[in-house]
Design brief:
The chain is of the alpha+beta class and 278 residues long. The protein folds into 2 domains: 180 residues, 3-Layer(aba) Sandwich (Rossmann fold), CATH 3.40.50.150; 88 residues, Calycin beta-barrel core domain (Lipocalin, Beta Barrel). 23% of the residues lie in helices and 38% in strands. The chain is built from 6 helices and 18 strands. Strands 13-12-11-10-18-17-16-15-14 form a 9-stranded antiparallel beta sheet, with no helix packed on it. Helix 3 crosses helix 4 and helix 4 runs parallel beside helix 5. The radius of gyration is 22 Å and the shape is elongated. It binds S-adenosylmethionine. The site of S-adenosylmethionine has 24 residues, from helix 4 and strand 4.
């Protein structure tokens, strides 16, 4: 009997608690290879909820890191019709099962399983990525996710968090946690833009998707940025301009060192392009 068939529902939680406590340990997979995470499959109902939480659609390129028997990749291809699905697993037994499952589901034209180490995987092209790994493994992946993945990419994790990177959404399904993060654009620094002859400057700080900072108005006065929201490549914030009847509102899309957007100030709306100056 396969290892995962022997693990009952309660056993899974206990097994993971034990594994979490000794995360530096390697586990031997069925194919005789050393693994960073043991094989425990995500129940199908939870797979469905993870894909729903990730908002997976036919426009997506989906990756599952440590893809096991391929159930998450196969479900996304079969039910959400993702245009491309990729799984990676170190255990050849899992890869063989995943390929068999892809065949049964009739999705081999859009799905690939690679036998390899998830830490060596280039997953930049993903628009949505799922994982059921371990806290320490998530933490090791975190810099690569934040630095290499496109802003707006959704990351869905079964059971485990990303340290102090707070999830954008969290759901509990049958006492199991699932988390969603949206990779934020990099906005820390100084940004300037013009409205007519007037120059505005925003000095932004950032921790993950949390932005804060100050806005320098054309008259040189500095005011705090209010209600900042950074979601993927989209940023919005407001500011109180002394004497104005309504708050200034800025919204835009970040693309590298430019933000294209609009600003409403004193009842007027203007298209703006903010440039990163430092
Ligand atoms: C907890 S299981 C999750 C399986 C599947 N994603 C699911 O949710 O049903 C973790 C998987 O990661 C694989 N794995 C462990 N360490 C790995 C590594 N360094 N690189 C690639 N796969 C790994 C294991 O073989 C196992 O299939």
């Amino acid at each position: 009997m396969k290892m995962h068939n022997r693990i009952g529902l309660l056993g899974i939680a206990a097994v993971f608690m034990t594994f979490s406590a000794v995360a530096a340990t390697k586990y031997t997979g069925e194919g005789g290879v050393e693994l960073d995470v043991p094989y425990v499959p995500t129940p199908q109902e939870l797979v469905d909820r993870m894909l729903k939480l990730g908002g997976v659609t036919a426009n997506d390129i989906h990756y599952d890191l440590g893809s096991g028997d391929g159930r998450i990749v196969v479900t996304a291809a079969r039910d959400m019709k993702v245009k491309k699905g990729v799984g990676v697993d170190l255990d050849p037994v899992r890869i063989a099962e995943a390929n068999e499952n892809a065949k049964k589901a009739g999705v081999t034209d859009r799905v690939t399983f690679h036998r390899g180490d998830l830490f060596a995987m280039d997953f930049k092209e993903a628009t949505v990525m799922t994982m059921y790994l371990l806290p320490e493994v998530n933490l090791k992946l975190r810099p690569k996710i934040l630095d290499e993945m496109k802003p707006g990419t959704r990351i869905v994790s079964h059971a485990f968090t990303m340290g102090d990177w707070q999830p954008d959404k969290h759901e509990v399904v049958d006492s199991r946690n699932i988390y969603l993060w949206i990779v934020p654009a990099k906005v820390a620094g100084s940004w300037t833009w013009q409205v007519g002859n007037e120059t505005y400057k925003a000095d932004l700080k950032q921790q993950y998707q949390m932005a804060s900072g100050t806005l320098t108005l054309p008259n040189g006065k500095q005011v705090p940025i209010e209600s900042p929201v950074l979601s993927g490549e989209n940023i919005t914030f407001a500011a109180t301009v002394p004497g104005a009847t309504a708050p200034l509102r800025f919204s835009g899309k970040v693309a590298g060192s430019s933000i294209d957007g609009a600003m409403d100030v004193s009842g007027k709306s203007a298209k703006v392009t903010a440039k990163k100056t430092s």
